[in-house]
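Researcher: Please translate sequence to structure tokens.
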Amino acid sequence: MERVLLLSCLHEPVLDDALRALHAHQAARRLLPLPTYESILREFFTKFTSNQLLMNASGVAKSVKVLYERRALFEAIEDHASALRMTNTWTDAVNRPEIDGLQWCVAQVSSIAPLLLAQHVHERFTVVRDKAGKVAAEAAARSALNLSPDPLLLVLHVLLAFPKLDISFRVPREAATPSPHHQAQCIMHLDDMSMYLMQELNVVFDLVGIDISRVAAFCARTIVLDHHPEKTLNFIIARPAFFEPEIAALLVPALAELYAQGVTLVLRYIRASLTDARVAAVVPVHFTRLVEQWTDEYPAADMHTLINEFGLHDEFAHHVEAAAALSRRSSVRPRVVVHDPSVVYYSLPIDRDRVIFVDSDAAVEAAHAILLQSPVVAWDVEWRPDQMPVKSKCSIIQLACASHVFICDVVNHWTDAMQALVEAVVTASVPWKIGFGLVGDVHRLRYSFPDMSCFESLDDWENVVDIQTYLKSTSTKNQQRGTVGLSKCCQDILGFPLDKSQQISDWEARPLTEAQLVYAASDAYCLLDLVRELNPPEMRSMYM
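Model: Translation complete:
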């Protein structure tokens, strides 16, 4: 109800009218008397209004999206509603609407105070338009923080309350006097941080020096979960402490997992480890063995490059011999995954005529009309097995909604219209995008289509759930043993594994075989069934 009433204020055309509507709701005790609501309105009327500072339908739509993204704030307010009603701010909301929200938040003793303060700090720095405004915002924030008996601890709690909040304000280094309890708070809450936040806090608190093993475990987790593994990789490579043998052992499994998915930039760490004889004798072999273990799930994992670059021909003689035997054949192809007739596999639940091979303008138009009206679209990519040292480019992109699967021929029909379709799906807030191991897929897409800006970063995708990442972030068991593959995931959650016998077939051949089409459609559609069963929190309001 709080969000609904706050949203009603956004239908006023200008900020002053919206604030009057807000204060009227608060005076009538329909809305809690929080200065935070005024902060939200000021932010939205600054960011989402037209050049004439008028709120229009587009601005309201953007505001609704942000309100949903900040649902944790409103859920916390609801949880603390009884305590907030007992404050004296009912009178303040009516008689003193100019109350300083920053100072009000600092004065609260409730555990919700850091979250409310995060909103106010964010708003103060969002509405500034010049250097003078930024200086004033910094002064206001500093003045409010100084009211706290432990300003630095409060800042930590604020940052942890909104780990993805991107603000310019930082506690001045000269004013920061870290104590052991500040450092302990950081280490305790590492898993709640983004890589960016951990880097910022490490500068002030020297987290690497305090507990290198704990930070290494954090980095191993983050490099797999983050949309930008290069950020974590750069942090690791720049610090010699991460090349100690016992620390390298914590990092290498995560790096091997990413490499098997096609994220080859992780080799920078393996190459850098060669400068230390203690690590060089162990890390490349350990890394390559772990990659080999992933080849059941990722048959195209490039073992050839690892064996040659790191001189591991003796350690992996069996692989070298197998590769030599394959090279003597008429075509080089990876190990075949055999269909087991005794196994009941996942079966595509839609009619076969709803699987559309998109290789014409008419098919692109039909896909565009259906997919952009769908609340959820599953996303998958296939490519021909790599023939080293040449990497294959994407051959098809599968886009599945509840009623259809569209298999886009990006080899022969990568037209402007198809590019527009793909970009529209990626950048639209609706539909939600569902994938599995999207970091590897986007890495291959970026290699295949370097001119498509939407493949530069997953951060540019609107409303995404990577099921592999979600499982790893929510399951302690998965975190301990490494991420399960898609087929095993289907087995565990849906009761049936995927038939992977077509995974390493020639996806550039045209026409695709019936078995390839059914495999490609199933590989994408099963993601819809998985996300429905998993029901991740960010999608629980969706109708599927």
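Researcher: Any highlights?
Model: The CA atoms of residues 348 and 522 lie 5 Å apart.
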